[in-house]
Amino acid sequence: MLRIGLTGGIGSGKSTVAGLFARHGVPIVDTDAIARELVTPGAPALAEIAARFGPEMLLPDGTLDRPRLRSRVLADPEERRALESILHPRIREEVDRRLNALSAPYAVIVVPLLLETDFEYRVDRILVVDAGEQQQIARTVARGGISEEDAMATMRAQTSRQARLAAADDVLDNTGDPSSLGPAVERLHRRYLALAGTSL
After folding, report:
1. Same domain, 193 and 165
2. Is residue 15 part of an annotated ligand binding site?
3. What are phi and psi of 128, to 5 degrees?
4. What is the domain-level CATH number for residue 126?
5. Per-residue pLDDT tens digits for 95-135
6. Which of 24, 63, 73, 163 could anchor a disulfide with 80, C-beta 3.0 to 4.6 Å?
7. Do 111 and 189 lie in a common domain?
8. What gap in Å lies between CA 54 and CA 20, rounded to an integer?
9. Which residues of 71-96 are buried (b: 16+ CB within 10 A; e: fewer)?
């Protein structure tokens, strides 16, 4: 099975693109969704986060205080690495489990930090969703839950736009009219089917 690693900066449109592939029946494995599942109340990863970062990272209902943890790890690279050491091995294990259970010509794996981690070696092609930096910030703030300051800090912590584009096998331009994404995804869908040795 062909493995397509879908990545892009914060607010670039990764989720939108993943949804368009899903409409074609393509299996989607989303590492952000897996990360959220890993920190539900009672999960071992959440207990480890509380032990490492302090009980103040939990809200009164026992759920993770995401904004508080985000601000802390964005302010300190060592803290970010500590969080990644808790979550990333578990995420990779769950990704492998889900992929091994699939039977499809190809699958899309959504990995925001694909180039920042060792994940690029686990995919066959890298698909980058590209947008301008000001667009990324505006979109991120507009969807709520994160300040402009945190959005900019997240962007600084990620691989640069230039480095992502240099690593890409395929690029989806999301700097213009969002309606152009549908046809672009369909073209890529056909290409990936051909690469996987099948067709529509």
Report:
1. yes
2. yes
3. -105, 130
4. 3.40.50.300
5. 999 999 999 999 999 998 888 877 777 899 999 999 888 78
6. 73
7. yes
8. 39
9. bbbbeeeeebeebeebbbebbbebbe
Same domain, 86 and 181: no
54 is in an annotated binding site: no
Q: For residue 31, say whether it is annotated as part of any ligand binding site.
A: no
What does the DSSP assignment read for 25-58?
Answer: T--EEEHHHHHHHHTSTT-HHHHHHHHHH-GGGB
For residue 14, the enclosing domain spans: 1-27+105-200
User: Has residue 121 been placed in a domain?
Assistant: yes
16 annotated as ligand-binding: yes
pTM: 0.88
Average pLDDT over residues 63-87: 90
User: Do residues 156 and 166 make contact, with C-beta atoms less than 8 angstroms apart?
Assistant: no
Residues 148 and 164 in one domain: yes
CA distance 144 to 93: 30
